[in-house]
Amino acid sequence: MIDDLPPPRENPDLKGHEEAEAFLKNAFQSGRMAHAWLFSGPEGIGKATLAFRFARFVLSDGGEAAVQGDDLFGGGAGDEEGSGLYIPPQHPVFRRIAVGGHTDFLAVERSLDDKGKLRNEIVVSDVRAIGQFFGLTAGEGGWRVVVVDCADEMNANAANALLKVLEEPPNRALLLLVSHNPARLAATIRSRCAKLALKPLPEDAVSALIGEHIPDLGAEDAQALAHLADGSPGRALALAAEGGLELYRDMTGLLETLPQLDVGALHAFGSRFGRAGTEDAFRTAGGLLRWWLARLILTAAGGEGSEARFTPEEEALVSRLGKAAGLDRWFEVWEKINHLLAKADHANLDRKQVVLNVFLTLENAVRS
């Protein structure tokens, strides 16, 4: 049973980013805070949670809107020795932001289209709302705060509209951009933001968080999920919900049979994705295979720190397969498999056949 993880606007807890919290708190208290911040880092590590956390802190005037001298705000997650941005869920600012009812706060996310479906990008009308919002007088006489989650999802027109806001920021206005891949953003946007890069959490910290949300999961499985998640608690919990651990173990079991694939096991594995309703499982398996193959290439290339990216069992397999084909050949395999998986997503191909082709591509690479 997986406990529901609250969305960032409703999540009071953030662990593993105490240094980032202290940095933001010091920036706010210095009185010389940048008007725009770019929070970057891998998906699922807490960037949006930090953005909403900082927004609550700022809109409560650093907690000063609460009872002075009360210890109500101490001791929260990430608030050791008073360094964090913790505002408790019972605080009125927290409650109003959570339900979208704070007059001085705006969240910009992908909106619904005319048919009521969630768009796959943030459009210009979403971003123009920022300029209109910042043009208003603060309803409570303090700051006005906007969170854009996620800035990578803006289309070109939306990005241009955001740039206009950044070029002429109003006083006491704070813009917080969340980005999984800041390289996708225009350099003109990045240059106008203070930057805060969040680091992935250590595997032990991710494993502990998994244990909190999936209490009936064994310690070994929790550690395995943490390993697959690359320091992202969000990714670990998503993999758990999608059956990613079982998929990964079955996938690596197949890879162990190379250079002579177990044909029966391969067809059984591929059959898991041939039925209706298995699209998400197929994408999860494809993502795990990309993850594994990218690390094989990094190891074969002698990438710094690559030896720490595999368990001892995986290391033996990666070492064996990495030596079976040259680095150039593995890059060709990477490109071909990415093409196959992307085409399956967009061309409604037979998913089982795609899986067979992917593994046959791997077999040909190590046998040639």
Percent in strands: 5-15%
First-to-last CA distance: 45 Å
Q: Provide mean pLDDT, rounded.
A: 89
Spatial strand arrangement across the major sheet:
2-3-4-1-5
H-E order: HEHHEHEHEHEHHHHHHHHH
Largest sheet: 5 strands, parallel
Number of strands: 5
The gross shape turns out to be elongated
CA radius of gyration is 23 Å
Report low-confidence residues grouped into runs of 5 or more. Answer: 65-81
Helix/strand-derived class?
Answer: alpha/beta
Roughly how much helix do the residues carry, as a percent range? 40-55%
Query: Helical region count?
Result: 15
SSE layout and pairing:
Elements: H1 18-30, E1 36-40, H2 47-59, H3 92-98, E2 105-108, H4 124-134, E3 144-149, H5 156-167, E4 173-179, H6 187-190, E5 194-197, H7 203-213, H8 219-228, H9 233-241, H10 244-256, H11 263-271, H12 279-300, H13 312-324, H14 327-347, H15 351-367
Parallel strand pairs: 1-4, 1-5, 2-3, 3-4
Description:
The chain is an alpha/beta fold. It contains 15 helices and five strands. It has helices spanning 18-30, 47-59, 92-98, 124-134, 156-167, 187-190, 203-213, 219-228, 233-241, 244-256, 263-271, 279-300, 312-324, 327-347, 351-367; strands spanning 36-40, 105-108, 144-149, 173-179, 194-197. Helix 4 packs parallel to helix 5 and helix 7 (203-213) packs across helix 8 (219-228). The longest helix has 22 residues, at 279-300.
